[in-house]
Design goal:
Domain Flavin reductase like: 484-625
Mean pLDDT: 84
Protein name: Dfa3 protein
Helix content: 25-40%
Distance between the termini: 37 Å
CATH class of the largest domain: Alpha Beta
CATH topology of the largest domain: Metallo-beta-lactamase, Chain A
Radius of gyration: 26 Å
Number of strands: 31
GO molecular function: FMN binding; metal ion binding
InterPro entries: Flavin_Rdtase-like_dom, Flavoprotein-like_sf, Metallo-B-lactamas, NADH_oxidoreductase_modular, ODP_dom, RibonucZ/Hydroxyglut_hydro, Split_barrel_FMN-bd
Domain Metallo-beta-lactamase: 100-295
Largest sheet: 10 strands, mixed
Strand content: 25-35%
Number of helices: 17
Low-confidence stretches: 1-40, 484-488, 621-634
């Protein structure tokens, strides 16, 4: 990770911060007004200077800033680490509005608690803000919602700073798994307390904190904290979204925030929908006034609406509508979590039920219950001679040859059990393989590898949903099907390149949509491997093929074949690279360079509204292409 430049120490309360947002100091007034809208007086908002960071995409600078708000509720303040320009979390998670990492401080009449810290790259900014908000020498509790690095990256630093000020009473509060994880992350002894569901911690002055153990949202060590004084539920990842703005609360409204909220749920929470419903039951008797999340705005203005979305989405995701897949991963080990999450996201994109478990945290009884309700068991390779490796034995013992199938996923770590050995162990137990093992031969891990794991999940999901689709097709009106089959259509090759991954697919459902600006609509099946590359804001090329030409038949035959996950569809195909990075086929008679402006959910497909900014007819003849006027996105 690249070192952060030291930001300027000078900061002023309520100062303008146009350098970060392109806005004026009036934005800070709007933040204070939003907080005051619930009946309190205006709160002070303090913005740091902007620092830059270059540790994600080589050559690109990312703006970092902290936003400190003195009181978001009675005796409660927040430090929001603003990652203005973060543009992705892996291949499937394109960020349109950056993200935030939120930390909270509660000052009771007798005790003070800090809830979560921040990402390690915010060390200079966050510690400067923290020192101004509280005296680390008198901090009583550090409450850790969970140990994923983007929230726990500065725990060790906070412990060091407190110790340097002679603080010997500071106690770390967390779930059993959380404390166990921290002992392997923080290389120093620290005072700690493991809490169970329903345990309370009195800070004085009515700030009585109650803890809710909420495993698998989305890590096994997750814990919520509810303050009975203010009605605030601190949830870390749950109910969050990757959305960075100068508004600390959800004042932008549901229409603006819902796409970001839904994407976050789909990528991180949907595979754990059962755990979402369990957590909702645990908090149903709380008098909730605000949900204070670890990412994005606090939910206050539209709290009931956003919570109800989680409930309805999770009920739909857990409905018994088809086959179920269990995915086991290993926390804090290689690329296990990231690759397992991508594989699970590919499955849920196809409407397959998924539940996820950490092999470090799950016990033998939970394994038995999980295997009983799932037909396919996917697991990442665990480290040798560990509890996670022992739990593989429990899996083998509970799997039945005629009921279950398995998939082995690489963790991309030298200390792991070999993928081939794990696969052989399952086959010797007569458990059939649902999908060839996902073994990675190269290092470091590329975006192409990440995409291949999501594509593998999609392929499995498509296979598992074939029976239900076939049944649905039989129930359709045959005359209607014939009529739809006569609608005019042609064949196109859609190509795209995103985050280093290039891809291509055959498309037939392409229709003119508008003349000003020039645009078309494209329909993409949800289980297509191209789908993660065709989300809002992504660019691609539409290659138009000429009917009856031998080269057209040859190209179509190539792209219609079955490809293994991660295989480069363009290998061996004669093409050039367009201005947007997507391939232009030399066999095409014309092509359009496009940008996805919006998408609409249409059942098992997405219907995308596409704007065209450039086109060319027969590039092999060197004809001049046309460049259209720049488009204004709605």
């Amino acid at each position: 990770m690249a070192a952060l430049p030291t930001p300027s120490a000078s900061r002023s309360r309520g100062a303008a911060f146009a350098g970060a947002t392109g806005r004026t100091g009036a934005s800070q007034k709007s933040a204070r007004t939003a907080l005051a809208a619930r009946g309190g007086e205006e709160r002070d908002v303090e913005m740091s200077e902007v620092a830059s960071w270059t540790g994600l995409t080589p050559g690109k600078e990312y703006r970092l800033q902290t936003m400190s708000i003195e009181e978001v509720a009675e005796n409660t303040s927040t430090i929001r680490s603003l990652d203005w320009d973060r543009d992705r979390f892996d291949i499937e998670f394109r960020l349109e509005r950056g993200t935030t990492y939120n930390s909270y401080i509660i000052k009771g009449a007798e005790k003070t608690a800090l809830i979560d810290t921040s990402h390690e790259k915010f060390e200079e900014l966050y510690t400067a803000a923290l020192r101004k908000e509280l005296d680390l020498g008198s901090l009583d509790y550090l409450i850790v919602s969970h140990t994923e690095p983007d929230h726990s990256g500065l725990i060790g630093k906070v412990l060091d700073l407190a110790a340097a000020q002679g603080n010997e009473k500071l106690e770390v509060i967390g779930s059993k798994m959380c404390i166990a994880y921290l002992q392997n992350l923080v290389f120093q002894p620290f005072k700690n307390r493991v809490v169970q569901n329903g345990v309370q911690l009195d800070l004085g002055g009515g700030h009585n904190l109650e803890f809710v153990i909420a495993p698998n949202l989305h890590w096994p060590d997750t814990m919520f904290t509810f303050d009975h004084k203010t009605g605030i539920l601190f949830t870390c990842d749950a109910f969050g979204m990757h959305y960075c703005s100068d508004e600390p609360e959800d004042v932008e409204g549901v229409k603006e925030l819902l796409p970001h909220y839904a994407t976050y749920y789909d990528c991180l929470m949907k595979p754990n929908a059962r755990s979402v419903l369990t957590a909702l039951k645990k908090i149903q008797d709380f008098d909730l006034k605000v949900v204070a999340t670890g990412h994005g705005p606090m939910l206050s203005q539209n709290l009931d609406t956003f919570v109800e979305y989680y409930r309805s989405w999770s009920e739909k995701a857990t409905a018994k509508i088809g086959p179920c897949v269990a995915v086991f991963w290993v926390s804090h080990f290689g690329e296990s979590e990231r690759l397992a999450q991508l594989f699970a996201h590919g499955l849920t994109s196809c409407g397959v039920n998924v539940e996820m478990h950490d092999l470090n945290a799950v016990d033998a009884l939970e394994i038995m219950e999980c295997v009983g309700r799932n037909q396919i068991i996917a697991f990442t390779a665990p480290p040798r001679e560990t509890q996670a490796a022992t739990n593989i034995g429990s899996l083998v013992a509970n799997l039945k040859p005629k009921k279950h199938q398995f998939v082995v996923l690489d963790s991309c770590e030298d200390a792991q059990e070999p993928v081939a050995l794990l696969r052989s162990r399952m086959l010797k137990a007569d458990i059939p393989e649902a999908l060839p093992a996902m073994e990675v031969k190269t290092r470091p891990i590329t975006t192409q590898v990440l995409h291949s794991f999501e594509e593998a999940g999609m392929q499995m999901g498509k296979k598992l949903s074939q029976k239900s689709k076939a049944a649905a097709a039989k129930s359709q009106d045959k005359d209607l099907s014939k009529a739809l089959g006569r609608l005019a259509s042609s064949l196109y090759i859609v190509t795209a390149k995103k985050a280093g991954v290039r891809h291509a697919m055959v498309a037939s459902w392409v229709t003119p949509a508008s003349s000003k600006p020039l645009g078309v609509s494209v329909t993409i099946a949800k289980e297509r491997a191209m789908e993660p590359l065709l989300r809002i804001g992504d660019t691609f090329s539409l290659n138009i093929l000429e009917e009856g030409k031998p080269q057209t038949l040859q190209v179509m035959k190539h792209f219609l074949q079955r490809f293994a996950p991660g295989v480069d569809r363009l290998e061996g195909v004669d093409h050039i690279e367009g201005s947007n990075g997507a391939a232009i086929l030399r066999s095409a008679c014309a092509y359009l360079e496009c940008k996805m402006i919006s998408r609409m959910d249409a059942g098992d497909h997405w219907v995308g509204s596409v704007a065209i900014w450039e086109f060319q007819v027969d590039p092999t003849r060197g004809l001049k292409h046309e460049v259209l006027e720049p488009l204004e996105e709605p």
